[in-house]
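# nightly structure sweep
# worker-07 picked up a monomer target from the shared queue
# config: single-sequence mode, recycle default, output format = C-alpha cells
# input follows
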Amino acid sequence: MQRSRPVDAASADVPHRPFVRELLSFGFVGCVGTVIMIGGANVLRHLLGGGPIVSVVLPTVASTLVSYLANRHWTFRHRDSTGSGREVAIFFGLNGVGLLIQTACTGFTYYTLGLHSGVAYNAGLLAGLALASAFRYWSYRKWVFTPAAA
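# output follows
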C-alpha cells in the first residue's frame, strides 16, 4: 500500500506561477508604457496642437523603447536572448504592427466617425491600445522573448 502525499493549495499551482509573474510584470510595464503613450499623445494633441495621428506615433515610439528595455531586463529576463540585433529588430517590427493597430483605431474615430472631442480621442487611443497590447503580448512570447533552452 502506497501512501500519497497531501497536496496543499500553494504547491498545486506552482507550474502557473512563472506565467502569472510574467503576465503581471508585462502588465506593469504596459501601464508605464500606457502613461507615456497617452500622456504624450494628449500633450502633443491638446497642449501643442499636433495632428491626431502624429500625436499617437511619437509617444508610442518613446513608449516602445522603454517597454523593450523593461521587458528584456525584467519581464522576460528568464528567457533566452538570441542576440540583441535580431531581438530588437523583431521587437520593433512587431511594435510597428501594434502602432498600426493603434493609429487605425485613432484614425477611424477621428476621420471616419468624425468624433473630435477629447473623450472620443482618448476612447480611440484606449481601444487601439487594448487591441495592440493583446497582439504585442502574444507576439513577444512567440517570436521575441523565446523560452530558455533546457
